[in-house]
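Input/output pair, single chain:
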Amino acid sequence: MSPEALHALVSVSADGLAVLDAAGCFAALNDSAAALLGSAPADLIGEPAPFAPGPVAPGPVAPGSVKPAAVAPDGGRQTVRWPVPGGRVLDLEYRLSPLSGGGQAVWFSDRTDVRRQQERLTAIARAASSVAGAFSLRATLDAVAREMVMTANIVAVQILALDDPAADLRILGMAGFGPAEDFVDRLSACRRLGAHVRFFDAFVGGEPVVQTHRKAAIMADPAWEPLHEIMNRPDWDGFVAMPMVVRARTVGVINAYYRAGEDPGAGSLAFLQAMADHAAVAIDTASLLAQTRTRAQSDERRRLARDLHDSVVQQLFSMRMQAKALRRRLDGRDAELEHIRPIAEELAELSAGALTDLRLLVFELRPLDLAEHGLVAAVRAHAESVRVRTGLVIDVVAADELRMTGALDVQEDLYRIVCEAVHNVVKHARASTVEVGLRAEAGDLVVRIRDDGAGGDEPLGSREQLGLVSMRERTERWGGRFTAGPGPGGGWTVRAAVPLRRVWEEAGG
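Output:
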């Protein structure tokens, strides 16, 4: 091949071709090489090349640096990370061939998209595995979020469940932000200040929202000030909100935050869509399982309550009446039969106790007041039964408009929350009074249980096994919010808030 033909071939090659001198600096390179490296050919001649003959320590290298970035030999091929103007970092694959005189010829190409696609496929496979195998929805979606931030261009992720843009959201998975337990409260503060929350647009429209240079806009906007500290933790620039849709219903969004210079392309959006599909399936599956479990439990309680009432309770009631009749007849007999009286009296006492216990069991399985008169009446009845047994004063404060007769499953969960909270007070708080409040507040049905006990200095974690997990699950099952902890004036406060519209939806209204 003539020198002219060889020069033409090198010039038109789409791959980067270069010659390095004995010191590892560029001696010659074609236009494709200069384009891949983001500089003009004249600016690269004499500058150190990033290509090393063998593995060295990992990490990107700035142009002009003598020490190359990490390489990984693969059948003669190696890779290096190279930052180009604009902040983007490329993954270059290259091969070296020694030249006479101590220099080297190098061939290289951009493998960034290929490597990221491999990372995304791995993350998708791992996410699918966690959705299939994890029991807890929060644990599952935290794992999905972590898989996403392990890809090269995403630094932080939020997986958020939404029922309505006007309502508060729930964080189901998060990675890359560090501790952010108060994120929802801070976001609510931003909304009150007028912040434009772009992921609500994705939720309402059902289409992804892509926003470049979003971080700079947020950090410069005083309406976002409550979230500045949290949002400034990751080193990000662009932002994508991907809606999570399952069975034609949008259940939330995935927010992905991209490194500077890593604007999301079609491949990255396809990856986010796949992850959003996995997360949506996990949310839907958890919801269906919870509904199935709740209905099965409620059906079984109703059956047990009906069977107990129709058989055992009636029999014991008859036993008690017969014992009373026997005692009345004995009153007319002569003294020789007096030894029978204690037996009859004991029979009456035992049957009366058994009848009381069974009625209490029936009430606990499915409170009759709940089905017949609604939540407030059931709570008042339970408060009275606790007062009779323990002497604890329980003040139930509720508005008349909360005398609901529908939505039994929602009301029963709220009733169980009250029962569990009062049980904890009796068992652990050493309190003398409890206030149970039920009221409509900002579109929610709010149940609050406050005691004057000794739990004011007790950390939340120490009570986590005392029914708090169950109470939280019962609240979040209906899209609600649950908090528990020391009250400002001492004692302990449990609060469950369920959207009123969910109550009426469940009731068919």
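The chain is about 45% helix and 20% strand. Residues 154 and 422 are 46 Å apart (CA to CA).
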